[in-house]
Amino acid sequence: MTAVKEEMGLVIGVTGGTGAGKTTVVSVLSQLGMERLDVDRVAHKFLHPGSPVFRTLVAVFGEEYRQEYGIDRKRLGRLVFSSPAHRRKLEELVHPLLKREVARVVRAARETGRDLVLDHPLLFEMGMEGLVDEVWAVTAPRELQVARILNRDKLTREEAEARIAAQLCPEEKAARATVVIVNTGSLEELAATVKKLWEERVRNRNTGRP
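Now predict its structure.
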């Protein structure tokens, strides 16, 4: 009998600075049929009671960060984005668990031939670009990023700037990415760009092109 070759799924990692529009790009790809993995949401699971590091997080950061349903994310966020030492400590505790869980999901998608998109703001910072077939970096001018963050998260300008500064600079992300999307237009223009890029990949796959 001749073995039937299973179609391999495509795994895309979408990254970009906060406020650049990364999550919108992921949403459009999801609407086009890709399975979506929000890496931030996976990380949040480790801030809940019962996670392997919950007790350690409380011990390290203090009882004042504990809520009924887990760690107070907003309060912890203000701390870690104002203190590189605290941010590194949080990353040391959570990132190894996060990397294993994301790798497990990617492996399962590949084994079943499913298309998967990772919504991953720290893809490069965590050294996880090797998990994906393509990296799409979403960029926007810094002032536009700040304006979007202020409107979305109700932070101070200082807090917004700190969150941008905590991530790899857009220029380096763009230099290391497979695809760069500059998001300075409307949501409709962004959606049209993403759809065109996705259709190119579908055509290439159907024609056997790399």
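The mean pLDDT is 91.
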